User: Fold this.
Amino acid sequence: SKMEAGRIDWRFARCDSRDIVEQALQATDGLFGTKPVELVRQIPDDLPEIVADSDRVIQVVINLISNAVKFTDEGTVTVQVEADNGTLMVRVIDTGAGISEADQDLVFEKYRQVGDVITDKPQGTGLGLPISREIIEHHGGKIWVESQPGEGSTFAFSLPLADVLQTPQQPSTFHELQGQVERLRWVPRQGRQTILV
Assistant:
């Protein structure tokens, strides 16, 4: 509610993106416990800096890792980080239950828990992913999910690098633009309409 009311104090500064991910990994180390789930790290040493509220981005990474461990009974949780085309890409890939295509649109909605009927997983508030989306979008980034039921899920987000102008930019392909548009959901509104071209 503080975020929606604009009462969050954001503390943006240049920060080491590798350090952000490492702190999140340390914070979630105990979640693996005795589960037969292995953490796989794919994090290069020479990641560029980002301009961010590091505590908030750590919160997002912790949330994605926590969810991955919670819904993976055995296998792996992979944390993959790379710099690509002026953005930092962070992916948390699990070999867990997966999410149906219909439910993928719902996971970022407030108070929604998907798969409750068929699993006995511990329940939360249903706010972790919506808050994560608010944080990433406030940073000018994007967050999304790719998943197949029974094959696991990939939750990913991108953030602009601190020195984007020094990074060679590649034009988006038509296929990439189509993919971005397909992830948007149209919500009917009363009154004046806005058209995005």
